[in-house]
Structures are given as C-alpha cells and as structure tokens.
Amino acid sequence: MLVFLVLGAAALASAHHSGEHFEGEKVFRVNVENENHINLIHELASTTQIDFWKPDSVTQIKPHSTVDFRVKAEDIATVENVLKQNELQYDVLISNLRNVMEAQFDSRVRKTGHSYEKYNNWETIEAWTQQVTTENPDLISRSVIGTTFEGRNMYLLKIGKAGTDKPAIFMDCGFHAREWISPAFCQWFVREAVRTYGQEIHMTELLQKLDFYILPVVNIDGYVYTWTKNRMWRKTRSTNAGSGCYGTDPNRNFNAGWCETGASRSPCADTYCGSAAESEKETKALADFIRSHLSSIKAYLTIHSYSQMLLYPYSYDYKLPANNVELNTMAKTAVKELASLHGTKYTYGPGATTIYPAAGGSDDWAYDQGIKYSFTFELRDTGRYGFLLPESQIRATCEETLLAIKYLANYVLEHLY
Ligand SMILES: [Zn+2]
Question: Which cofactor does it need (predicted)?
Fold first, then answer.
C-alpha cells in the first residue's frame, strides 16, 4: 500500500503543479433540517470561503437534506464552532483533502501515456482521439466542432458502422472540470465499443444500426486548469467583463429557463449562468452541432459526477415532461442494469425533484429541442471521495455505467421516432 501511495504522490507532483495544496482542508456533510439551518449555512458561506460540492450552490439547499462542502484550513474552527453551537449534525467526509487528492492516483497501472484505468490529462486525451480514430478507421471518425475560449479544439468522435440515414445518440463528458470520472467514462465507452464490436452481439447491433457522437471533454480549458492550477475548478475559463472572476458554469449556460433558478448572476459564483445563454464558446459549439443534427439525434446523454443519480427533465421547472412515465421506466430499468454488476445504488427521477431545481442545463435544452430521450448521469460516488474518486474505481464505475448506457441505447433503437 505504501508503495502505491508514494507512487501516487509522485504522480501528483509531476503531473499536477498545483498552485493550491489543499493541506488541512476538510469536506463536511451537514444535515439540514429546517429553514433556520439553511440560514446558518448562508451566513457561513458569506463569512468564510466555502466550496459547495453538493448541491452546487448555497441557494439550492433544501430542508431535510444533506449539504457537502469544502472548507479552507483557516476556516475550519469557525465552521465547526457554528455547527456545534447551533446543534447541526454533521460528519467530516474528508478530514484532509490533500491526502485524498494524492490517493486518487492509486491505479496499479504503471504505464505512462494514455490508460483507460487512469485519469488522463488533456494532452493525452487529445492524442488518444487521434490514435483511436486512426486504429479504427471503419468505426470511428473524428471532427472538430469548435474551439474553446483558450483556443483548444473540441474533438467529436463519431462511432458506428458506415450507413445512410442512421439514427444517432449524442453523449458528452467533462462539462464540469473537476468531475474527472466523467471524461474517463467517455474514453472507456469508445474503447469498449471498438473492442467488442463483432464480438458481443448487443454492441455489434448498436453500432450497425446507430451512430454514437462522443464529445470526450466539453469544458477542456477548465479540465486543463484542474490539472495545472486548481483541482477543484468547475467552470469554463472565459473572462467576465467588469469582473476579476473567471468562468461560467457550462451547465447553467443553455437556453432552457436560462438563469431563472438554481443559477447565479454573479461571475464569481460557481453556478454563474454567463452573460447570456450560449455565451460560452463550448456550449455554443455543442448546441450548434446538436441543432444541425436534430433529424438524426434520438437521445442525449450527459455524464457528470458525483451522487449516483440518473436524472431526466425537467430541472428548470417542476413541470414534468410529456413522456415522463416512459422516461421514469427507462431510468428505473437503467439503474437496475447498472446495479446488477457491483450493486451500486442509484436514485432516479426528474432533475428538479430528485436533485434540485437548476436552470440552463443541457439535458433540458436537448429535450426541448425535441430529443425525447435525454438523461444526466451523476456517476460515483455518494461523497466518500466526491470529485476525487480514486483511479482504482474507474474500471468498476465505467463497467457498470456501460450496462446502463447500452440498455438505454437499445431502448432508443427499439423506439425510434
Ligand atoms: Zn457536473
């Protein structure tokens, strides 16, 4: 064990010239019972630097729920005093963030360069998109759907056997920079697609009859920033006029009840909705691609972490989608499939009631474009590691998630519209 911890630390030091070291920072989980508790958390958030992990912001806290947040070392005593004095029940999920941050690199794979069981930096993922395309010319083609704020190419992989007028499923990963398990899943999916095509009957049929559009990392600039400067970064890296704060929450930036609920108008907030819907080059590129392929795209899947949930519209409103019953049955079956491998339990339902109301999300937007099968995955875990899921869990997480995705894809194929 010691050996791997040491290797992990070495990997961290070499791959991760972090400006912040997170030494002594803690992640708390607080039980919130009533409005009084919510007000206390609001007060704490206004006087100390709190990074909300779940929900995404202080405004989304509701009674009878739990709140996970990260606290800087110098604020821990203050936060614990306030919690104790007001008799709020809480647990310390992570007692020293730096230790967990080093432990995320616990893969036993010694390989340098790309690995499906390690977290890969953007440079490695970019090279991988080229390599996997070159090695599988009859199944994969690569295109660039736009560039990011900092000028990086947004690569899209189209996976499927050549054919005319094929229906398609669009799946993206890496909306939120710190959710590293998400891009790992997109890479895993591509590998499993090409590895099992012609070997496994279901994948073979899916790729013969459908195309998958895979966007391995949406928020590339943010992802790069989590590797080089701040592992806990969430947003894009665009500049904001009149503010020294960077970035917009890409999953609050779509034209679906834009900025009406569960989003912030402040450029410094982690849930900043942007100056307008699709103000971000990344979300605009994604939306433009989907708009121009609406006749073929039958399902939209977006991969986030953490909390083990499968969500469908709506999140911007408590209204239910027209095919709510169908989506609910699909989600129920998908999470059952997922659990069949390792027993991982997911909850599911419409976003607004299952997690919390949040406007401007890509799933709601895609649904309102007419894509009637639209789902958001919140992958492992439920808070033990949060965004710092160890590499040793990549395989199991991706294997189980793949079962759910294959089920959904097959359902879509049997219910084309
Ligand atoms: Zn997310």
Answer: Zn(2+)
Q: Indicate whether 129 and 58 sit together in one domain.
A: no
* Per-residue pLDDT at 20: 63
Domain that holds residue 303: 122-414
Question: Which residues are catalytically annotated?
Answer: 378
* pTM of the complete model: 0.94
Average pLDDT, the chain: 94
Cα 90 to middle of ligand 1, angstroms: 24
CATH code where residue 56 lies = 3.30.70.340
Which residues have C-beta under 5 Å from ligand 1, the single-atom ion? 176, 304
Task: Summarize pLDDT for 150-198 with one digit per residue, the tens.
Answer: 999 999 999 999 999 999 999 999 999 999 999 999 999 999 999 999 9
Residue 400 · residue 336 · CB < 8 Å = no
176 CA from centroid of ligand 1 (Å): 5
Residue 259's nearest CA partner among 249, 270, 269, 273 is 273
Work out the number of other CB atoms within 10 angstroms of the CB of residue 380.
23
pLDDT greater than 90 at residue 397: yes
Q: How far apart are CA 177 and CA 282, in angstroms?
A: 13
Residue 163 Cα to ligand 1 midpoint, Å, equals: 34
